[in-house]
């Protein structure tokens, strides 16, 4: 039977926690998926551990090793090696609810034949969050353009895309840079396609000390080309004047601290906004 879904996991030195995700996958009520792992140059026991998972023969597992180039490059690699109809990134520090794949297959049937819809979403909460399960899992709505959503607990949306659509939107890769924000791709897909949003809570996890979320601003400075590109992309959203000015401040800070070329500093985004930023800094 042809699997409908690739659960894709980019990983780097996460052998100490990867079993949690594996156990949630092998316990799925629906096994109609492939687990594709791209190992981004791990130096720990990841490869040996994945081989142990594979030998258990509980789920279909594919493993690819690449030189350490960053999560976004690993995602590109995963996309190039995906043959299933749907592709969903589940990080190595996350795990899925036992009915997650079953719900994902049900949602996939709703959008499979609509070429205007790129994919669907579900919620990932911290595994420390205590929430009323009766309040979630009831809403589904179609979004065109940049989505805004609120719920009472901190969390994030996980996107599951049709592979053929996601393969139109690979991450840009810059020499020497190992980070590019996922929101860049979500925005680009969302501008061209609709998304089926849901409030189903199907994933859990927490940000670890070795994760990308720690020292996030340092990441931006170490990867300026990807960071600046993402800021430029955000200017296509419907933004308030305050939001535009705050983005311009961040843009100016990054180009200044990373010694970007003169033309990129002053003309990479709206030069009038940059002028306001510079004037305000001199007033302080």
TrEMBL record:
<dbReference type="Pfam" id="PF00535">
    <property type="entry name" value="Glycos_transf_2"/>
</dbReference>
<dbReference type="InterPro" id="IPR001173">
    <property type="entry name" value="Glyco_trans_2-like"/>
</dbReference>
<protein>
    <submittedName>
        <fullName>Glycosyltransferase involved in cell wall bisynthesis</fullName>
    </submittedName>
</protein>
<dbReference type="InterPro" id="IPR029044">
    <property type="entry name" value="Nucleotide-diphossugar_trans"/>
</dbReference>
<feature type="domain" description="Glycosyltransferase 2-like">
    <location>
        <begin position="6"/>
        <end position="164"/>
    </location>
</feature>
